[in-house]
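Inverse folding, one chain.
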């Protein structure tokens, strides 16, 4: 941004609540805000590593989940783990997919140098030409490639005066949560009321006309760029980014949370990993994976925020960046320049910066443009050799083959990935990547504190469903630890139940034995009672029978005795009778 250019911002502060109610700005400032969606994660983390977010800001750093650990791992890895040095630089300095548009912003957050083009001048007269967009590339003839000029052939690439993403002359309202609306009286009333600002008379207006190298004395930043860094930082960490950026004395509260996606599953594409589970804690200690899975992980660094939000249907609990994304979606397309709203909603990944083994098939690279090499006549009628994206703009055009660094140096085949093949990696639950080719596995296990080998359990997992891969990306952004534990929590619960089954079976068998013994004991007791009852009945029967027999015998004895005492005359009388 030139020193004579300015970005005008007006904002209103609720003095009682100590909150920014809303801000009003032109298209230039809104272009800067919308450009946040085009930034790959690697650029944001690099700016944090370089201390850009910490200038004049004593508050918390920008820790986007565990992505910072992933970036640091890539930075600390030895170059021989990658196909070449270029692959490592691609991850540490990812390219903005809307680079041509963002170069025209009045103020750029991304300080990555513009793309340069390189070719082998030794082979320039041939018909099989190799072009590279990466410095340090080697031609397959063995020569190093040198810089060559790209012909700028359109107003879009050279820059226009209408704006970058939205109409420059249009006015917009930006609310405290980064919701952006067209400036109108109705939009100035309803949203503030929703935020609880009912008394407009207690709002203080602050108007700032700022350039790159100057800021008003009362403003909390030494220059405009630091202010924009602060807004970006708060957009990723706070629910009220404008208040936390413009009123730095406020106590900022972090706002991010992980909510797993339980959407429909898709079986296209899969990556296999080995998961080591800490049984006693029911968490994932680490995973073992090959280069394909690590390629997928490190490709998070080359993915823009807009593409991530597109994958998640705009639902990401990471500060207020989702509100900015929804604003692009909801603003009338007629206020955007061309189809820039569609580009912001899904910037995709810059050509050659994507992951070939990505389970998220919808996360694709931008189409690789074709390049032509030929003669161009300059304004002073001089001929020179240049490259162009249009065949009709150069004389004697020769189509060029694009060098892809994601393979062996100088190769013309399609790239396969960032990591050299074959290779085995350990990835911790907080996304620290450790190559086993250059590290001792025994030493690594010894470094694990309070973890017994008997407490580790091995499982193989195929990341084949798109929502599984999406949950891993979501957890990486919103969790400062336990990325795999959270994203694969349903598997942990399943494995815990499976571990409980043998134990439950043993308990069940023990219970069955106890129940059986109890039954036998009760049966024996019942049988004893029955036996005693039978014996008692038998005794009673015998006693009754004995008594009956006794009575019978007594009766019979009486009869015999009577017969003996009767006289013959009495007997005859009885017979007569």
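Residues assigned per position:
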């Amino acid at each position: 941004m030139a020193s004579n250019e300015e970005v005008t911002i007006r904002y209103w502060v609720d003095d009682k609540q100590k909150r920014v109610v809303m801000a009003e700005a032109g298209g230039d400032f809104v272009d800067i805000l919308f450009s946040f969606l085009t930034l790959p994660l690697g650029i944001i983390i690099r700016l944090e590593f370089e201390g850009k977010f910490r200038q004049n800001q004593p508050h918390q750093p920008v820790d986007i989940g565990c992505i910072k650990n992933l970036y640091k791992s890539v930075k600390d890895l030895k170059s021989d783990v990658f196909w070449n040095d270029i692959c490592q630089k691609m991850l540490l300095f990812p390219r903005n997919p809307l680079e041509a548009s963002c170069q025209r912003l009045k103020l750029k957050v991304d300080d990555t140098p513009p793309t340069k083009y390189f070719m082998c001048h030794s082979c320039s007269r041939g018909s099989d030409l190799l072009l590279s967009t990466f410095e340090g590339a080697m031609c397959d003839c063995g020569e190093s490639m040198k810089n060559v000029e790209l012909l700028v052939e359109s107003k879009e690439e050279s820059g226009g005066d209408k704006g970058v993403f939205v109409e420059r002359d249009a006015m917009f309202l930006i609310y405290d949560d980064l919701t952006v609306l067209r400036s109108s009286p109705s939009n100035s009333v309803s949203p503030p009321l929703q935020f609880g600002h009912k008394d407009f008379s207690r709002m203080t207006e602050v108007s700032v006309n700022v350039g790159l190298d100057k800021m008003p004395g009362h403003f909390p930043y030494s220059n405009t760029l630091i202010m924009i860094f602060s807004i970006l930082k708060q957009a990723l960490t706070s629910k009220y980014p404008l208040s936390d950026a413009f009123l730095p004395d406020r106590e900022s509260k972090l706002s991010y949370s992980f909510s797993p996606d339980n959407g429909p599953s898709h079986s296209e594409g899969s990556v296999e990993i080995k998961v080591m589970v800490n049984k006693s804690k029911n968490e994932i200690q680490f995973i073992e994976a090959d280069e394909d899975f690590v390629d997928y992980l490190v490709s998070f660094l080359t993915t823009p925020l807009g593409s991530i939000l597109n994958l998640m249907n705009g639902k990401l609990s990471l500060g207020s960046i989702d509100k900015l994304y929804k604003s692009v979606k909801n603003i009338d397309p007629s206020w955007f320049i061309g189809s820039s709203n569609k580009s912001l909603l899904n910037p995709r990944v810059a050509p050659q910066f994507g992951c070939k083994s990505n389970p998220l098939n919808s996360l694709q690279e931008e189409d690789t443009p074709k390049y032509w090499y030929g003669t161009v006549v300059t304004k002073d009628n001089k001929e020179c050799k240049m490259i162009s994206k249009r065949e009709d703009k150069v004389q004697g055009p020769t189509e060029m083959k694009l060098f892809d660094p994601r393979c062996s140096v100088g190769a013309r085949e399609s790239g396969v990935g960032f990591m050299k093949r074959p290779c085995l990696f350990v990835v911790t639950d907080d996304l620290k990547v450790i190559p086993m080719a250059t590290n001792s596995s025994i030493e690594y296990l010894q470094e694990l504190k309070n973890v017994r080998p008997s407490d580790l359990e091995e499982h193989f997992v195929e990341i084949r469903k798109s929502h599984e891969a999406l949950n891993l990306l979501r957890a990486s952004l919103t969790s400062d630890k336990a990325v795999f534990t959270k994203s694969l929590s349903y598997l942990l619960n399943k494995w815990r139940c499976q571990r409980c089954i043998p134990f439950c079976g043993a308990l069940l068998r023990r219970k069955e034995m106890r129940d059986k013994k109890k039954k036998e004991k009760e049966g024996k007791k019942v049988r004893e009672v029955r036996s005693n009852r039978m014996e008692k009945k038998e005794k009673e029967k015998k006693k009754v029978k004995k008594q009956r027999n006794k009575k019978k015998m007594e009766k019979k004895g009486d009869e015999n005795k009577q017969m003996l005492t009767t006289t013959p005359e009495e007997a005859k009388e009885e017979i007569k009778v």
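Residues 260 and 338 are 35 Å apart (CA to CA). The first helix runs from residue 27 to 34.
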